[in-house]
Amino acid sequence: MKNLLSEVLKHEVYPAMGCTEPVAVAFAAATAAKLLKGRTTAVLVKTDPGTYKNGLAVAIPNTSGQKGNLLAAAVGAVTRKPELGAELFKGLPSARLKEAAALVRSGRARVKVDYSKRGIYIAAEVRAGKEKALCVLEGSHNKVALLRHNGKTLIKTGTPGKQARPPYKQALKKAAFRDLFRAAEKATPEQLAYLKKGVEMNLAASRAGLKLKKVGYYVEDLIRKGYLKRDILSNAKLTSAAAADARMAGAPIPVMSSGESGNQGVVAVLVPWLVGKAFGVPEKRILKSIALSHLVNSYIKVFTGELAPICGCAVAAGVGASVAIVWQRSGPDLKKATLAVNTVISDIGGMICDGAKSGCALKVASSADSAIRAAWMACNGEGITDEEGFVGHTAEATIRNISRISSLGMEKVDGIILDIMSGKKP
């Protein structure tokens, strides 16, 4: 593919308000509901385990801290504004929120998990009296694979359950790290401007998050009181964690995502930016390194899947950020990039994903810390090699190894986590 970066930026790097999975649930419901004329009377959503897990306990923007896929589905079904995309919760009218809450209380809004599904799958059936519409998203948080109105098929792409990978993902899976280096180096002025917009957006989210007195705030509190030194490690941890704090608390402020994930966007964007600025790297080079960070994040997720049992902030965005820092200092050095990949994955590759919630900020902070440490070691020719553990001789081999562990070795993890999480609900 001639311009891999443009495809990744187009499909996986975009502004998003609130956690990705509830937004996607709301988008599916809104897309179906927009086909209906009367008032929404019911909505039923079925999702894959990963989407269900990620939306179970995370706050939704502009709802005064209310949480979950169930309310998200109802909001989408009554607002009927799919054109807002990943910013569907922006400016949510209080009247619509009340209508959605009433739908939930009446039991006419339901969300179920379909354990047979792998990868992103969201099917939203919305009713308005005798009318009904169905929207199915598959393979992406915003890709409509099936759309029906009163039994009539309006959109159908491929066979449900057997969605083909988009061409850019096929190209990513065939790529090597040297191809990602080349793609990042060729970033256009327009693409660099878009990447800078992402930096500004995520820094703004971080400033909002520091006001919440959560993870980022308390890292900064340790610095203020002299228990931690203000350095690049602590600054990257508190800045990125605070942005995740804002997202997971449902703050009505967007972040630039990466790999279709807001928290991964926080790590992939802010960590290379803060490190580059701290070390006096020219801004253009920093922005190109962020392009590389996005590419590596998306590359890894082609192998691990969009919603893996392991934390994407660790094994995808953290790795992308680390490779970006190495590229800032050492250029397209495959040996050093491999050391960075191996070291991050050896360090935090076993971090489990137990859904989106406030605790994700802790994982974001750990990913930032690991990414910087691994990059500095790699730039000095040090890191974990294939003589140790499950890492490989090349970056590509290590990524295939962690993918195998995630998809095969941890096959039952999502089900067990969901059992535990669902048991907490009244």
Compute the average pLDDT.
93
Q: Give a quick account of the main beta sheet: strands, pairing sense, barrel closure.
A: 6 strands, mixed
Separation of the first and last Cα atoms: 50 Å
The helix content is: 55-70%
Protein structure class: alpha+beta
CATH topology label of the largest domain: 2-methylcitrate dehydratase PrpD
- When the domains are counted, the total is 2
Q: Assign the CATH architecture of the largest domain.
A: Orthogonal Bundle
The CATH homologous superfamily of the largest domain corresponds to 2-methylcitrate dehydratase PrpD
Order of strands across the biggest sheet? 3-2-4-5-6-7
Low-confidence spans: pLDDT under 50, at least 5 residues?
none
DSSP summary, beta strand count:
8
Q: Could you tell me the strand content as a percent range?
A: 5-15%
Please provide a written account of the structure:
This protein is of the alpha+beta class and 426 residues long. The protein has two domains: 141 residues, 2-Layer Sandwich (60s Ribosomal Protein L30, Chain: A), CATH 3.30.1330; 249 residues, 2-methylcitrate dehydratase PrpD (Orthogonal Bundle), CATH 1.10.4100. The strands form two sheets. Strands 3-2-4-5-6-7 form a six-stranded mixed sheet. It has a two-stranded antiparallel sheet with strand order 1-8. β4 and β5 form a beta hairpin. α2 packs across α3, α6 packs across α12 and α11 runs parallel beside α13. The protein is globular, with a radius of gyration of 21 Å.
